[in-house]
Specification:
The structure is a homodimer. By secondary structure, chain A is an alpha+beta fold. The first copy, chain A, folds into four domains: about 100 residues, Uridine Diphospho-n-acetylenolpyruvylglucosamine Reductase, domain 2, CATH 3.30.43.10; about 120 residues, Uridine Diphospho-n-acetylenolpyruvylglucosamine Reductase, domain 3; about 110 residues, Alpha-Beta Plaits (2-Layer Sandwich); about 80 residues, 2-Layer Sandwich (Alpha-Beta Plaits). Helices cover about 35% and strands about 20% of the residues of chain A. In chain A, the strands form four sheets. In chain A, strands 15-12-14-13-17-18-16 form a seven-stranded antiparallel sheet, with helices on both faces. Chain A has a five-stranded antiparallel sheet with strand order 5-6-10-8-9. Chain A has a four-stranded mixed sheet with strand order 1-2-4-3. In chain A, helix 11 packs across helix 14. At the A-B interface, strand 9, strand 11, helix 10 and helix 17 of A face strand 9, strand 11, helix 10 and helix 17 of B.
Chain lengths: ~500, ~500
């Protein structure tokens, strides 16, 4: 499970903490009554209609405890047909709903803003099959990613996605948010690895886009509409996922570099010489390392420098001497320091150093965290500019999946900056970060999505014509706006 | 250029030849008048407003000369903004239009059915740039695929798509039809390789979905809507395409197998042992070979058998001894005969044998040709069933991209079956083929699309709810239905 800082705000748990929430008005949806609850109980098991207040808190609160909604009922259907009936009913009555997977999202997309009914997918967790011939996993949307990973691992296969929240997140949520993760550079997005899905529209229609055929040009590819739409266009209930043969041969190196231009040069050479042998290229700066060392993490390198790259290459063939290839590559470039892991323990230590940076930062105090994407030549400029802005008030650290242009920019405030200032600091920092991104044609959300958290900044990464088209599509598919309202677009 | 048989029908050139056309009624679009022509001439160069009847024939006729429309005018805009103005005008006046690329489609999607205005993209053929760092090609939609291929080749890169029509087809059309081709098994679909595009909606709005960032989860991924929609939702005018480093090391083998179950077994083992080294797995049956031999093609194998596989593996690394790997693999399987190409000439001969099957078949006489996709265990059954049905009347041959489940099923009628019977034979064969595909959950169009040719059979590969949703999307984006009417859905 991803370890994330639980922010403790000075205001009470159930108050809506953020400005984005404050601006919103509840839309004119029907308020749930006893009759509605009775209807839900006629469709799904009574135990799966949760109305007990103490149980509701759990479902109403997001992963970061940053967003808390007020759903009066949580429904846990077991079949696509049950979801179809529920949505058809809600659509007729104009009852708003929030689809909820593992609730591990970081942008408040999977909890209600007001009193939307939660449709939780946790009871739809059947692994249906894995087809060896086509390497296709067939499962329900409520399966936990780690369970799927273990299932296909035993078959000599690997899932195309791996991320910190794997112990809790659901595959349906991974699809609905087009989740990224550490193997993106090798296998690509969830979109690229989704071979089929079933989704229920707002009116209850079931869209069966479950053909596992690699080529199928028969009209619009409807599954694309649901992937990445964060539950605003339909509820994904079932899917077919491309799995990949496990790599038999993996080597890992960490190298230290002086200038960011060196980082880019190496990245380009790596792509040129290694091609699809590359399975990860991760990046962090020395400010990140300083924080990690402060918390006792081991640095395998003898000499420090300004930037670090972790390079993983892998192959399906054991005949390939990857260590030689990596050594040969590294010997040709001008390195101050670099290490190739000699065993599994060393590999683990190197990965730990990178993967625990977020955790390390959270130990320092209040952290503002941005999941952004920028063209590589601009990748580090925003970090330096942010550093100039915050001065001595904070340490600015940068790390991320450089192979995917994905930067995690963290502003770690000094201990004397109190938690209750979070909200003011964020309101100062957000417009700067997102306007900067707009100027360099970056993305305000690389992998986490928009949800409620970034919806007011959507125009920093999308033109007004594009946002208008999103509204046209939303309105065509969900004319009553019952599906995950207030999220992405308003 | 792909060599395709030009069918000579007994009815006149400008008559609508097919049943699918006969059923259609012209919808109530405005008929073009002088004022409209004057408007077009005010937006684009006069020379690019073509109204001369002898010139129009070329644009009105599809590649196979199977479909002939009656557009009174062809427009050749040079910019996205000009297309925006034209569409905005046409939308207001309810003038129907057909976007046209290289006009190499095989389902009649790029020519008018009645008197729709042709918007031909041939004047938008600028290659804008190639970004080395991200391997991204930026170009206009009217670029010919082969020109792009030559351009990136010189940079040590390769295009993700390669197909027979590359000398004529446009990249915009490749995107609009989500084209496949011979490298699909290695690089995937056009959808997977499109990093961005610009499209103009029916009302003239310009959708700029041109972010080349690998990760960008900021709302709905609008480019997905236009890819594969065959010009019915918008006109693609510009794009960003992922290119790939050229493979440095390629080996090719051809093997003969006894049973189709052997084909599947080898395919599975290949995937398991070679992983992403595989760059092509092509298939043909002995009936195809017999036709090829009749036309003097060389068969490099000593012994004949029922099925043949061509296996190409490739690597970016020259350190990998692919020949050893391939030899090792082939020595472990029980083969009647197999050959590894020893030089470029042998490679070319093996590829020729496969790539000229369609041409060989067309020399025999009247051919019905189906581009279909089936689950692999069912892949060859339809061929045998078709063979039983046609008896001595025709030779039934099967070949295709087995790595993509893509079968080209050709029914080659004997010479005494006259061309004018095409239409009757097709009307007998089509329902059988497409119903069979429906039963086995295959696809009636693997890579060619639906166009006008297969629209009445769309329900064999899509549910009624899915077709309904396609209509909702079409209606939302193009409420007046001016964009490529009568195609895909009606």
């Amino acid at each position: 499970m991803m370890k994330l800082k639980m922010f403790k705000f000075s205001f009470g748990f159930f108050k809506v903490p953020f400005k984005s929430f404050k601006k919103l008005q509840r839309k004119n949806y029907k308020v749930i009554d006893e009759q509605d609850i009775d209807y839900f109980k006629s469709v799904i098991a009574k135990d799966d209609v949760i109305t007990n207040e103490s149980d509701l808190i759990f479902f109403n609160t997001d992963w970061l405890k940053k967003y808390v909604g007020n759903a009066p009922v949580v429904l846990r259907p077991k079949t696509t047909e049950q979801i179809s009936k529920i949505l058809n009913y809600c659509n007729q009555k104009k009852i708003a709903v929030v689809p909820q997977g593992g609730n591990t999202g970081l942008v408040g997309g999977s909890v209600p803003v007001f009193d939307e009914v939660i449709i939780n997918l946790s009871k739809m967790n059947k692994i249906i099959s894995h087809d060896e011939l086509t390497s296709t996993l067939h499962c329900e949307a409520g399966c936990i990613l780690e369970n799927l990973k273990n299932y296909v691992d035993a078959l000599g296969q690997t899932m195309p996605i791996d991320l910190g929240a794997k112990g809790s997140c659901f595959i349906g949520g991974n699809l609905a948010t087009n989740a990224g993760g550490i193997h993106f550079v090798k296998y690509g997005s969830m979109r690229k690895n989704c071979k089929g899905l079933k989704a229920v529209l707002a009116d209850g229609s079931i869209i069966d886009s479950m053909s596992p055929l690699p080529k199928n040009n028969t009209g619009y590819d409807l599954k694309q509409i649901f992937i990445g739409s964060e539950g605003t266009l339909g509820i994904i209930t079932e899917c077919l996922i491309q799995t990949h043969p496990k790599m038999k041969n993996i080597e890992l190196a960490i190298i230290a570099l002086d200038k960011f231009t060196d980082v880019l040069k190496i990245y380009e050479q790596l792509k040129e010489e290694m091609g699809d042998l590359i399975s990860a290229i991760e990046f962090f700066d020395n400010y990140s390392l300083i924080i990690q060392e402060r918390h006792g993490r081991m640095n395998p390198l003898q000499e420090k420098n300004n930037f670090y790259l972790i390079i993983e290459i892998g192959s399906y063939s054991i005949d390939l001497n990857l260590k030689d290839i990596l050594e040969d590559f590294l010997s040709k470039i001008d390195l101050k320091d670099g290490v190739i892991a000699q065993d599994e323990w060393q590999k683990k230590k190197i990965w730990d150093l990178r993967e625990t940076i977020a955790e390390g930062a959270s130990k320092e105090g209040l952290v503002l965290s941005y999941d952004i994407s920028l063209p590589l030549p601009k990748f580090y400029e925003i970090v330096e500019e942010t550093r100039r802005r915050v001065g001595y008030l904070a340490e600015v650290i940068a790390y991320g999946h450089i192979g995917d242009n994905n930067l995690h920019l963290n502003v770690c405030y000094n201990k004397f900056v109190k938690d209750e200032n979070f909200h003011i600091l964020e309101s100062i920092m957000e417009p700067f970060v997102y306007d900067y991104i707009k100027d360099v044609k970056g993305s305000i959300s690389a992998e986490h999505g928009i949800g409620i958290c970034k919806s007011e900044y959507l125009n920093r990464s999308q033109t007004s014509d594009s946002i208008e088209l999103m509204k046209i599509i939303k309105n065509a598919l969900d004319p009553n706006g019952i599906l995950n309202p207030y999220k992405i677009i308003n």
